[in-house]
Amino acid sequence: MRGHRVWKPVGPFRKNVEIERLYLELASFNERIQELERQHPEASKIDALRVGALALARQIDEICCSSANDLTELLAK
């Protein structure tokens, strides 16, 4: 039986996949926050979800910034 090659994303494509995954997770957080706000406007769970959503947003920003830095380095060469 022959083995099959498994391709792993590398470089910018991998970062795009990571960013897309994080955006989907962030959208899920935001939907849950809205749902909880409608049900229980003063619920403490909302604050915990907001903290998680902010952490994801920071991760997205860090990945985007690192991509921009990579591009800047390539253009400098």
What does this structure look like?
The chain is mainly alpha-helical. It has one domain (11-76). The chain has helices at 11-39, 44-76. Helix 1 (11-39) runs antiparallel to helix 2 (44-76).
Alpha-carbon distance between the two ends: 45 Å
Number of domains: 1
Number of strands: 0
Number of discrete helical segments: 2
Give the strand content.
under 5%
> What coarse outline follows from CA principal-axis ratios?
elongated
Order of helices and strands: HH
Using the CA coordinates, give the radius of gyration. Answer: 18 Å
Q: Calculate the mean pLDDT score and round it.
A: 76
Class inferred from helices and paired strands: mainly alpha
Keywords:
2 helices, 77 residues, mainly alpha, 0% strand
List the helices and strands and how they pair.
Layout: H1 11-39, H2 44-76
Helix pairs in contact: 1-2
Q: Quick gist of this model?
A:
By secondary structure, the chain is an all-alpha fold.
